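To close the chapter, one final illustration. This time we ask the reader to focus less on the individual chains and more on the assembly as a whole: which components sit near each other, and how the overall shape emerges from the parts.
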Amino acid sequence: MYLEDLRVGQRFTSGTYLMEESAIKAFASAFDPQPFHLDEAAARASVFGGLAASGWHTAAATMRLLVTGGLPFESGLIGLGGEISWPRPTRPGDTLRVESEILSILPSRSKPNQGIVTVRSITLNQNAEKVQVLTSKILIYKRPQPLTEL
Amino acid sequence: MYLEDLRVGQRFTSGTYLMEESAIKAFASAFDPQPFHLDEAAARASVFGGLAASGWHTAAATMRLLVTGGLPFESGLIGLGGEISWPRPTRPGDTLRVESEILSILPSRSKPNQGIVTVRSITLNQNAEKVQVLTSKILIYKRPQPLTEL
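The assembled structure is written out below.
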């Protein structure tokens, strides 16, 4: 889909992604080495009450789900920024999916072939509980024109 | 540092983190498999004009810098959410650092031993150019009271 194919209120659903315990610990080890992401006993004693994925791991998994079909934008998913929150933790063994909705579409005034789409992407676990809410601004292009029309 | 040690306007600087090309491609392969994060030629032809790290990789590297001294909160960095933007791409070979500033401190009314701190963390490359601006809400605790005071 290109800019001209989108409309406000359109919804998209991604495939699924399993958050394995080993992957949660590996990600945390590399990027968020805090006890509640790395060690079950420490996690039980923490505010999380058990091992929890780094929020940035949930964000990264969400991006994978969006890029691999969750948001079928032909020109790619080039994010300019957005708002993110984690209403509850992602747990080992959770299977995530992402439901997205187009909130607004803003064609560029200076660059006629592009625009910015605002998308809300809600990441859910297998119990349909929200583990992340991301509202992002994505750069999107119009369908390339065939050369014969030039 | 605990909740009572913080004040609005306080600033913190992290260590540094090298974004290696192999790590950029490995992260993108796992979480953001788009051509401009994986392949130099495709990236040159894209809006990035050359290989660029996934924004989520920049976010993850930023978290590592914050956790490993960039924000020395004794009770850990438990993020509730925030706003993120990527004013320019992170490139292979960039050395990142994070400069943070406390924007607000909100003690909890219902839980006297905790509060929420809003922190702006700016991730800079070796040329002091902003590659990410993150404003996050972090759960923070007061200093644990010695048992002798109970």
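Chain B has a mean pLDDT of 95. Chain B is about 25% helix and 35% strand. With these observations in hand, you are ready for the problems at the end of the chapter.
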